[in-house]
Design goal:
- This protein is α/β, with parallel strands linked by helices.
- About 45% of the residues lie in helices and about 15% in strands.
- The protein folds into two domains: about 180 residues, 3-Layer(aba) Sandwich (Rossmann fold); about 90 residues, N-(1-d-carboxylethyl)-l-norvaline Dehydrogenase, domain 2 (Orthogonal Bundle).
- Strands 3-2-1-4-5-6-7-8 form an eight-stranded mixed beta sheet, sandwiched between helices.
- Strand 4, helix 5 and strand 5 form a beta-alpha-beta unit.
């Protein structure tokens, strides 16, 4: 795989949800031919509609040129047929829920239909890559690409290098990251990597403080925004990420690193069990319209 040249690359994103449609958008904006795959046409249609809405909003705000909107939509398509979606892809990015067994099953299926030399990437935010790389034929072509929500706005891209990831694979993906306008960091394969591990530690402590009645959610968040210049407080950020996602990451790090330091607080488990997952469900630590 050569360094990223938009006209020469085909990319497939597996999963048209919150992260997947955003990843497909920023890749298509480079001009690379991009396919968004999901198990249902309805999910793909919703994902493509969100991409169009993001682009329309960008044009309205003067952030996106009309010509870029047009070329992005021309470069982007959806396909429910996995074999057709990944068959000619140079890069296949998995962006499904944070469940190790699900991700491994998907990579096995994708590998059966992919062409020789394709790069495989996971958008996992916490699962050790060594566990996922077992599912592809050549682990040297496996890498972590941890995007941040909303993908089309957040500049950071955390690239996770497994012990098996080749220099060629890393160089190609760094090239792609820069073409997308992202500011990449490269971290070693460790549970939670850098961003999720640090962000989770702050988020879990904020939830414990709320449980203990130290302060209200709004005041805990304000303390970090005004006192430490965080753009968003840890509880509101948890709502944006999704309480279910934060719970899954906490469970992974508790199992992989330390069961005490990363133990999910009872309040987090309670809210997830009640379906209060944050902004996407309309309620988490805050209520949303």
């Amino acid at each position: 795989m050569s360094l990223f040249t938009p006209a020469d690359w085909q990319v497939c994103v597996i999963g048209a949800g919150t992260m997947g449609h955003g990843i497909a958008q920023v890749i298509a904006m480079t001009g690379a031919r991009t396919c968004l795959h999901d198990v249902s046409g309805e999910a793909i249609d919703r994902g493509l509609a969100k991409v169009r809405a993001n682009l329309d909003k960008g044009v309205a705000r003067g952030k996106v040129d009309e010509a870029v909107l047009k070329t992005t939509l021309q470069a982007l398509r959806g396909d429910v047929d996995l074999a057709a979606a990944v068959g000619n892809a140079d890069l296949i990015i998995e962006a499904v829920p944070e469940l190790p067994d699900l991700k491994k099953r998907i990579f096995r299926s994708v590998a059966a239909h992919s062409k020789p030399g394709a790069i495989f990437a996971s958008n996992t935010s916490s699962i050790p890559l060594a566990r996922l790389a077992e599912a592809v034929p050549d682990p040297a072509r496996f890498i972590g690409m941890h995007f941040f929500n909303p993908v089309h706005i957040q500049p950071l891209l955390e690239l996770v290098r497994a012990t098996t990831t080749s220099d060629e694979t890393l160089d190609a993906i760094v090239s792609l990251a820069k073409a997308m306008g992202k500011d990449p960091i490269v971290v070693a394969d460790s549970p939670g990597f850098a961003s999720s591990r640090l962000g989770l530690a702050l988020g879990l402590e904020a939830i414990r403080m709320l449980e203990e009645g130290v302060a209200s959610a709004a005041d805990i968040d304000k303390a970090m925004q005004l006192g430490y210049r965080h753009p968003m407080g840890p509880l509101k950020l948890t709502d944006l990420i999704g309480l279910d996602v934060r719970l899954a990451i906490a469970e992974t790090l508790a199992a992989e690193i330390d069961a005490t330091r990363f133990a999910p607080p009872p309040l987090l488990r309670k809210l997830v069990a009640e379906g209060k997952l944050g902004k996407k469900s309309g309620e988490g630590f805050y209520r949303y319209d």
